[in-house]
Each structure stands twice: as C-alpha cells, then as structure tokens.
Specification:
mainly alpha; three-stranded antiparallel beta sheet; 6 helices; 3 strands
Amino acid sequence: MDQPPANIVDLYKAQGWNNEASIKADIAAGGWKSKVQAPTPGFSNTSTSGAGFTSTDPAQTIQAAIDALKKANEPAVASYQARIPEVQSAYTQARSQLQASQPSLEQKYQNLLDKIKGQQTADVAAQTNITAGELGKRGLTGSSTLAQQEIQNAISPLNVKYTGLTQETGLAQTDAMRELQNQIANLTPQEQADIFSINQAIGQLQSGAGQAGMTAGLNLYGTNLSAQQAAEQAKADAAQQKIENALAKQELNQPQFATASSGSGIYAIDPNTGKLISTIKGVQNQLGSDPLGLGIGT
C-alpha cells in the first residue's frame, strides 16, 4: 500500500493521537504505515464506509476504540508501573539509613553526658581544693563542721549547674530518639502516598482512554452507520431503477393487443397478424413468462 487509506485520521485518533498537526506530520513522514499494519479489532482499513469500522454494533465499536486508546497508553502506563519498585527501593534505603543512624545518635548523647559528668567532677574537685586551701589559711581543717559547710556552699552552684546540663542533655536525647523513630515511621505512609499517586496516574490514563474511546467509538460508529445506510439506499435505488428500465423496455417491445369480449372469455387481437388470440394463456404465450426481464419464472 503506497497511499494511506481514507480512514487513516480515524485510526490515528483511535490510537490516542489528538493533535491534527502531529497527525498530518506523521502521515507525511510515512508513519501511517505502522498504524495500518495491525488493525484494531472492530476497525477495517478498507472499509467502504470510510469511517474505519465494519461493525454496526455500537458497543463493539466503542470497545474497539477504547482498546486502541489503551494500547496507545501502554508505554506511559508501563513507565509509571516501572516507577513503583524504584520508589519502594528508595524508601527501603532511606529506612535502613535512618535505622542505622540510631546507635550513633545514642552514642553521641551518651558521650555528651559522660563529658558533662566528667567536667562536673573536675570542677567540684577543683573548687573543693580551693575552698579547703582558703579555710586552712584561716586555721580551719577540712574535717571541721564549719569547713565542710563552707566547702558545700562553694561546690553547690557547680552541682546545680551540671545537674541542669545533664537533665537538658537527657531530654534532648529523648527528643532526638523520638524524632528519629517518627521519621522512620512516617516513611511508610509517605511511600504509600507516592505509590498511590502513581497508581492514580495509571488509573487516569486508563479511565481517560475509556472516556475518549467511548466518544471516538460513537462518532465513528455514527459515521459508519450513515455510510452503510447510504449504501443500502443506493442499492435499493439501483434495484428500483432496474425495474423501471425493464418496464420501459417492455412497453416498447411487447405486442399491442386490442381486446374483444365473447361470451365465455376475453380475447386479444394481435395487430401484427390480425389473428384473434383466445384466453389469457394465449396472451401469456405471446408475452412470455418474464415480460419485464427480471429473471422471474412463471
């Protein structure tokens, strides 16, 4: 086939092509050949109706258009479907990374707590020695009640300070661990939402093919039905014309008879011979069994 069939534009549209300029460009480039190599069930590339459908069943025509559009959407659907395992893999990796960070996060805060505790011990010891030295200058030994009270008063602010730092660090550790667990837990609904979005896009492609296919199928079915009705009307007109032609021909060729009545029957006079032909059977013998030439026997 060197030229595209008359219904090539319908075939393009049934396969998801909606831009007229793109259709014309692809036809000009010879891309139309791939559109007619494997006709969709319900389509015919040689349909005499020019609509591209041979079926007069609207349901079959619509389904054929839907199937064609779904086939045209298959590459996009396949691309979306291929994204699902990629998304799942990405979330699995993220989940593993967050879970792996938990021990290091715990160790980070434990190191900070140990540092605070060590600094507290060192500062308290240093302040104790300083206070004890000052008390010794005044003749007070570290074992005396007054000396012990003075030492306690000196180190008490340090203990308050570092106790507060320890508590704050502990709370920060708890918050950080809870936040990490929340991040891990939130990955599941996020993953589900992303996969749902992909499936929703796939569904929209498939449902869109159904809606567009219904419209295209109904339009092409209507075109095909009109063409079929026109063909049937032309056939009926031709048959009627054949009958009229046969009648006109018979009127020109058949013998002219004059009738006469006589007692028991009807008689006809053959103008060519002047003879009287009696009975209706005699007239039939003159006219023949198919006077109109329509192929009808007696």
